[in-house]
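User: Please predict the structure of the protein below. I'd like the answer in structure-token form so I can feed it into my own downstream comparison script.

Assistant: Understood. Taking the following sequence of 264 residues as input:
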Amino acid sequence: MEFNEILPKVLYKYRDWSDKYQKRLLTDGEIYFASADQFNDPFDCSIPFKYNPDELTEENLFLKYISLGKIMHPNMDETELHNFAYQAHQRGLIHDPEHNKKVNEHFFKKFSNEWGILSLTSKSNNFLMWSHYASSHSGFCIGINSELLYDTVGSATFGPIMYDTNFPQFSLFDDNNENFIKQTFSKSDIWEYEDEYRVLKNGFSRKVVSLQSNVIEEIIFGYKMDQKLKFELLKLIEKQYPEARIYETQLHNSEFELIKSQIR
């Protein structure tokens, strides 16, 4: 997949300097690909399947049971698969909440074990993001060149999160990974303030990727960051990221927002 030029040129990651792992993004140029089961949103990558009722014909349901059998019982031969599909069809599994729960759990466990997720945002002055992910404004935020990141990571799925009040509606049959994208790039609109862009990479669950120094374009200090720490970080940045732009955030004096001021 080619890089999508519609994506923001710079994407941001908020970090807490007091966390020994999170600070490594700046000290060691390491970025972490989390697994879905590490997220605090219980619906993230675990949305219950709700199928389009127009697709629930007898023929389609039988074909769906065949595909489920291949996933759940990969060692079955063709005869066993057809028997499984026939019995599943007789029991009406596609309408069985317990069965659907098991299918969801199977997908989530497999996905969490295999796929690494990097969550970024297009916003560097988001007040809530600073509060929630950067130690209440005393941490830092890193601006990452999205195209260079794409080149570094290699084959990956890269795009924006889709926010909605309702679950997405799935197709019985995966069309160009459409169901996969709906499952892994859909979130409740209560998270819309994050304006998340996500990178998914197979085989990278809970793994670290090392970035070249030029991938990091911006380094932003929270407005509550200790001054002594700022001076220490300025020395580190001068040595390791000489081309990066450095900013600090300040409180606006007449509006409820942050001002991002360049200091180098």
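That's the full token string. The longest helix spans residues 97-114.
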